């Protein structure tokens, strides 16, 4: 983490500091007064519903060594080490960029509509065989989270894997210029953010902004089967690229994929005699692994190390997490997020897995899909294979359209639509014998992990 004197911090942010506290050393940065660690610099942010300046004195009581204070906020405390700045968020971002510029470190930036976090986790695991690695934790992937991640990097960290999220044009550009990646990864282009950006073409352009901060000798790793990305690459001269995907035109593609209840077995074109085992469910995660393999190879990781690393992947929670319900049923908790692309992939996974008496989908609203959101939900329902899926349960206003579509391919007595989680779980439990496989998936705002907890109770 950043360890600097208050004077050095002020200089890195471009904020003059003349007070007697200038030699006090800060260690790390926090924006939450409740989570202050001793020696932290507290950064009070102004939000729509709260103002961190109200908690500055609490932050000092909890161990903060210093705090920023925005000049337009009245009554700064007089007896604590305070650095006055024009805007606390901008000061945090300037500090993070200055700190990143000091570090001698390999940076991998990861963006995409789906699979960012999984790809980040796999890359981190593969690189850990040879490097001291840190990665974005949780959802710290935006204009606040990325600066905090950069400022948490230890001086001896050798590789940082940084996830970059967005909701509108220009956000990835801002993040990548701060992070300055040596390798940039675009996992895919899906439908997430159609509400804000309007088209998949606009989404692709927004994700492609990641190259704007790429080192001049850097490499872009991207899904080569996506024509929207291919077109952007062709229009960008002097860009070094590596591609992954399903087709043989890519630098890296699978020659065999087999799903099991424990993970995925696959072979690749560059090592045809070797079989890799990825301890993560889902064919789509094999492609996330291919992106990670290309990154690892660029940074000198051997195939032996890659093979070993893939077996030990631990993903962020609620991403195809296999857990057990109270009757012994197996539940795939994929409640972290959802888009049409990721929902289709998860349903395909459930359809492929063997050894279960019945297979059940619990699907909720997919958010931020724009004016065609009802159509996207209904299409999901219509595409369900009635020979592979036994029951469909939906929850939410938009979930009802999944149910509507599902009733065109499944008998109505196998499709249930709910607005309340408790009633959904009550009905679902009445059908369970213990040898079922249940997929639980929706956008983050639906909080369907609560359904998983109710099924386990």
UniProtKB/TrEMBL annotation:
<keyword id="KW-0132">Cell division</keyword>
<keyword id="KW-0961">Cell wall biogenesis/degradation</keyword>
<keyword id="KW-0436">Ligase</keyword>
<dbReference type="GO" id="GO:0047480">
    <property type="term" value="F:UDP-N-acetylmuramoyl-tripeptide-D-alanyl-D-alanine ligase activity"/>
</dbReference>
<keyword id="KW-0067">ATP-binding</keyword>
<keyword id="KW-0547">Nucleotide-binding</keyword>
<keyword id="KW-0573">Peptidoglycan synthesis</keyword>
<dbReference type="InterPro" id="IPR004101">
    <property type="entry name" value="Mur_ligase_C"/>
</dbReference>
<comment type="function">
    <text>Involved in cell wall formation. Catalyzes the final step in the synthesis of UDP-N-acetylmuramoyl-pentapeptide, the precursor of murein.</text>
</comment>
<dbReference type="GO" id="GO:0009252">
    <property type="term" value="P:peptidoglycan biosynthetic process"/>
</dbReference>
<dbReference type="GO" id="GO:0071555">
    <property type="term" value="P:cell wall organization"/>
</dbReference>
<dbReference type="GO" id="GO:0008766">
    <property type="term" value="F:UDP-N-acetylmuramoylalanyl-D-glutamyl-2,6-diaminopimelate-D-alanyl-D-alanine ligase activity"/>
</dbReference>
<dbReference type="Pfam" id="PF02875">
    <property type="entry name" value="Mur_ligase_C"/>
</dbReference>
<keyword id="KW-0133">Cell shape</keyword>
<dbReference type="GO" id="GO:0008360">
    <property type="term" value="P:regulation of cell shape"/>
</dbReference>
<dbReference type="Pfam" id="PF08245">
    <property type="entry name" value="Mur_ligase_M"/>
</dbReference>
<dbReference type="GO" id="GO:0005524">
    <property type="term" value="F:ATP binding"/>
</dbReference>
<dbReference type="InterPro" id="IPR036565">
    <property type="entry name" value="Mur-like_cat_sf"/>
</dbReference>
<dbReference type="GO" id="GO:0005737">
    <property type="term" value="C:cytoplasm"/>
</dbReference>
<dbReference type="InterPro" id="IPR036615">
    <property type="entry name" value="Mur_ligase_C_dom_sf"/>
</dbReference>
<comment type="pathway">
    <text>Cell wall biogenesis; peptidoglycan biosynthesis.</text>
</comment>
<feature type="domain" description="Mur ligase central">
    <location>
        <begin position="110"/>
        <end position="296"/>
    </location>
</feature>
<feature type="domain" description="Mur ligase C-terminal">
    <location>
        <begin position="318"/>
        <end position="444"/>
    </location>
</feature>
<dbReference type="GO" id="GO:0051301">
    <property type="term" value="P:cell division"/>
</dbReference>
<dbReference type="InterPro" id="IPR051046">
    <property type="entry name" value="MurCDEF_CellWall_CoF430Synth"/>
</dbReference>
<comment type="similarity">
    <text>Belongs to the MurCDEF family. MurF subfamily.</text>
</comment>
<dbReference type="Pfam" id="PF01225">
    <property type="entry name" value="Mur_ligase"/>
</dbReference>
<feature type="domain" description="Mur ligase N-terminal catalytic">
    <location>
        <begin position="26"/>
        <end position="100"/>
    </location>
</feature>
<keyword id="KW-0963">Cytoplasm</keyword>
<dbReference type="InterPro" id="IPR035911">
    <property type="entry name" value="MurE/MurF_N"/>
</dbReference>
<dbReference type="InterPro" id="IPR000713">
    <property type="entry name" value="Mur_ligase_N"/>
</dbReference>
<dbReference type="InterPro" id="IPR005863">
    <property type="entry name" value="UDP-N-AcMur_synth"/>
</dbReference>
<dbReference type="InterPro" id="IPR013221">
    <property type="entry name" value="Mur_ligase_cen"/>
</dbReference>
<protein>
    <recommendedName>
        <fullName>UDP-N-acetylmuramoyl-tripeptide--D-alanyl-D-alanine ligase</fullName>
        <ecNumber>6.3.2.10</ecNumber>
    </recommendedName>
</protein>
<feature type="binding site">
    <location>
        <begin position="112"/>
        <end position="118"/>
    </location>
    <ligand>
        <name>ATP</name>
    </ligand>
</feature>
<keyword id="KW-0131">Cell cycle</keyword>
